[in-house]
Specification:
Homopentamer. By secondary structure, the chain is an alpha/beta fold. 36% of the residues lie in helices and 16% in strands. Helix 3 links the parallel strand 4 and strand 5. The relative contact order is 0.14.
Length: 321
Amino acid sequence: MIVVTGAAGFIASCMVTRLNLANFNDIVVVDNFSIAKKMANLEGKKIKEFVDRNDFFDWLDKNYEEVEFIFHLGARTDTSEFNYEVLNLLNLDYSKKVWNACCEYQIPLVYASSAATYGSGTLGYDDDENMIPLLQPLNPYGESKNDFDKWALEQTAKPFFWVGLKFFNVYGPNEYHKGRMGSVVMHAFNSISDSGRLTLFRSHNPDFEDGKQMRDFVYVKDVVEVMYWLMHHRKNSGIYNLGSGEARTFLDLAFNTFSAMGREINVDFKDTPEDIRDKYQYFTQANMNKLRSIGYDQPFHTLEQGVQDYVQNYLTSNAYY
């Protein structure tokens, strides 16, 4: 059996699909299944068992001998969440329990970290583990992810294979439930569909023109491909970046979305909301050399390829992966 936590969410539900496509059908999905808006992500998938996240550790104590691998992708991912108690409970304490169980039962582990750990990027975007204690995230979500990365590196007891993945700006199918926290591609598609135009955040940094803020946008199909490869690789434990390795502007993303929809480009700008303005990242780009150095050699979708696939094969028909 393979366990996927946060399984009804965006990236994790895509991971279940990737496993099913490889004929892994004994999937145990873990989540808070009372959130109905996420459940469409799991429809039609081959799943052995649904386990509520509050019951998972009791379940694992009874079934660990049958568990081959754990993908711990469940978390509170809202970057505007300022309730430290919630973040500590779900992102830090729960992850520690998963880690300790993997140590006790000798289960290999891949868990989700985040590029939000890099903060403003003044220390760069290299996944050098020596830099992790020095990072200064810009929001409590990023802090919670970095706190767990630091804790994991400090442990003397570790799973025999483990990897933390710093996801950059992931976009793609199955994020429909995320609302404000959905990708810019999804919001762009919805806005263009409704009004024929797209409004982007104005730059409040003199080093960047409006719309020229840059992000490392990575397609979710590439993310799950890397995780699938790691499940088979099972060596070179550590913390790795997972982005496309190429920063692109929000205008690039906008123009590609208009193009994929066959619509005329119509972009304007508005001020970045004040509640996130001082925590806004103007540039992110994953250094992917570390993952490449351990043998991962698959190409990543370009922004053009990813946006076209997402828009034309999923968003246009509200389809799921």
